[in-house]
Write a structure and sequence with these properties.
Elements lengths: L9 E5 L4 H12 L3 E8 L17 H14 L3 E5 L1 H17 L6 H20 L4 E3 L4 E5 L5 E5 L16 H4 L2 E2 L9 H10 L21 H9 L4 E4 L5 E5 L26 E6 L4 E5 L6 E11 L8 E6 L6 E9 L2 E10 L7 E6 L2 E13 H8 L1
Parallel strand pairs: 1-2, 1-4, 2-3, 4-7, 8-11
Antiparallel strand pairs: 5-6, 8-9, 10-11, 12-15, 12-17, 13-14, 13-16, 14-15, 16-17
Helix pairs in contact: 1-2, 1-6, 3-4
């Protein structure tokens, strides 16, 4: 049984001001639910956030959400969660980069804001569920247990950024867009048919709290310049940088290395060490990761027991890869069937059993093929 066959509920629809959340709220109301719209004010100074339609936190966005709610015919409110957002998302983002890790603020926002702070407040006010415009599906089994699954349309699937939701949060989540095979153009056409002015509004892609999209500049302003060395795998200095936080594992461009590698091939960021403020670079082959450990696991239901075969997704728009995984003493141990690249501490790994989201964890350490070969030799 899918979420669409539920009894009528009191639903709080999180409306970002974009087309997806507006259509989701409209569908929830059309399905007979008692829907109230809410826009989350996530900046203490929203005028400083980007203008246009690139984020989800501007004054323009709140006005777009209000107009959409008026057209749908539902009550609408703006809730100030700026302080909670600053603490749980923005400060976490800065701290993770400072520690040499690569965070995903959208996962953190879903976990801490939309399905924690917002959900807790919604339940306290007597609402049954929180509705968002994410593309994912909730399936309810015969025993009443709810499972998070990929969207019917894999091209738009957003289950990766929802892999942090636990069983309690899933029990009060609603994703009206997830189980329909419609293209984004069809969603926009539906919005236009419904008279929603956001039908032609561009999607947001950037980090909402970085006004100009310059992540490195944002971090430099927060953390200051910290000059350090760029070294190769042997430890030889090949360049310098203004802050290790400005790099991510797998990065190729912007390294400012003065001379080419001995083999003439491009070099990539292999490691970021905040302890000695060093960035290590090397050939693409050295990026091959064969295994990893991940911490702070969150399960979308009962935690798995014993080793198991799954598929894993390592980034929001990445593909799946076959893995074996086992939870031991609170740490998730994962081994890849084939080496993967671009894996960085701080990223989330989300495990799947078919289309079902098993859960997620934060990558702590990685094991590379070249390092494993060196140890074996």
């Amino acid at each position: 049984m899918t979420e669409n066959s539920q009894r009528p509920l009191r639903v709080l629809a999180a409306m970002s001001g974009g087309v997806d959340s507006a259509v989701a709220a409209a569908r929830a109301a059309e399905a007979g639910h008692d829907v109230t719209g809410v826009h989350l004010a996530l900046s203490a100074n929203p005028q400083s956030f980007r203008t246009g339609a690139r984020g989800c936190c501007t004054i323009e966005d709140s006005r777009d959400a209000r107009r959409a709610a008026d057209v749908i015919g539902i009550p609408f409110y703006v809730w100030d969660l700026a302080e909670r957002f600053r603490e749980d998302v923005v400060e976490d983002f800065v701290a993770e980069y400072e520690a040499g890790r690569t965070p995903n603020p959208c996962l953190r926002c879903n976990e801490k804001i939309k399905f924690a702070a917002l959900l807790d407040k919604a339940l306290a006010l007597g609402f049954d569920a929180v509705c968002t415009g994410h593309y994912a599906t909730i399936v309810t089994g015969p025993d009443g247990a709810r499972e998070l699954h990929r969207a019917s349309d894999m091209a738009k699937d957003q289950s990766y950024v929802l892999g942090v939701l636990d069983e309690r949060q899933l029990a009060h989540a609603m994703f009206p867009l997830g189980d329909t095979l419609t293209t984004k153009d069809e969603i926009r056409a539906e919005a236009e048919r419904r008279g929603l002015a956001v039908a032609k509004k561009p999607d947001s892609h950037d980090i909402c709290f970085i006004a100009d999209g310059d992540t490195q500049g944002f971090l430099a302003n927060r953390l200051g310049k910290a000059e350090g060395d760029i070294v190769d795998e042997s430890g030889t200095k090949v360049g310098s940088h203004d802050g290790a936080y400005g790099f991510t594992v797998g990065q190729r461009k912007g390294l400012r290395i003065g001379h080419p590698a001995a083999d003439g091939k491009p070099r990539y960021v292999l490691d970021i060490s905040p302890v000695d403020n060093t960035v290590t670079v090397g050939p693409a082959a050295s990026l091959d990761v064969t295994a990893l450990t991940a911490v702070k696991p969150r399960w979308c239901g009962t935690a798995p027991t014993g080793p198991g075969a799954y598929t894993a997704q390592l980034r929001a728009h990445g593909g799946e890869t076959a893995v074996t995984a086992e939870l031991r003493d609170g740490t998730l141990h994962v081994r890849f069937a084939e080496p993967v690249r671009g894996v960085a501490p701080g990223q989330a790994i989300v495990l799947y059993d078919g289309t079902r989201v098993v859960g997620s964890a934060t990558i702590a350490t990685t094991e590379r093929r070249t390092r494993a070969r060196a140890l074996a030799g």
